[in-house]
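Sample 1 of the test manifest.
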Amino acid sequence: AQKITQTQPGMFVQEKEAVTLDCTYDTSDPSYGLFWYKQPSSGEMIFLIYQGSYDQQNATEGRYSLNFQKARKSANLVISASQLGDSAMYFCAMRETNQAGTALIFGKGTTLSVSS
Amino acid sequence: DSGVTQTPKHLITATGQRVTLRCSPRSGDLSVYWYQQSLDQGLQFLIQYYNGEERAKGNILERFSAQQFPDLHSELNLSSLELGDSALYFCASSPPRQLAGGPGQFFGPGTRLTVL
């Protein structure tokens, strides 16, 4: 069964607008971590934001925020004030057990295109 | 710069050949993970080592093997290469504890393998 689902293969947004990238997950573990990574065309994986399953508040990091809805098992990434440099592939990932030494499970990614 | 290094950046080889990919984790990180990113399979976890010992296995083929050396660098060996092994191979390392608000894992720049 797919553990991380990103249903949007591609998203398009205009500069300065906000965009939400969807992510749902499936786990029976009460302790887990959720991550978003950005992969530009150059290929490197750039960490954006982290949310622990027990964190009470939604994580924010600059223009990135994570809309964490535990009951719905969703962890959507919100990018405010989009910039041309935000054009990239975005991956949602989960770490079950939420221990540092556990591998990440990735979704298939969403390609974001920002236009001027 | 994540602090994780991978060599080589690019590798072009022929079917049936064997290659070795190398990874040096961040200073102080004991865990090393290998991931494969291909167009059809997405980002998949292959294998994890912790302080020289195999810790977890993902979707790693029998033709692939890895090891972690006493200095903590790791090598991923791919043999009897097939066209479908063409992919971007990432190495990642993780600290012993989740950093507050930080990435679960730090990714290297990747090795792009092309099998002709």
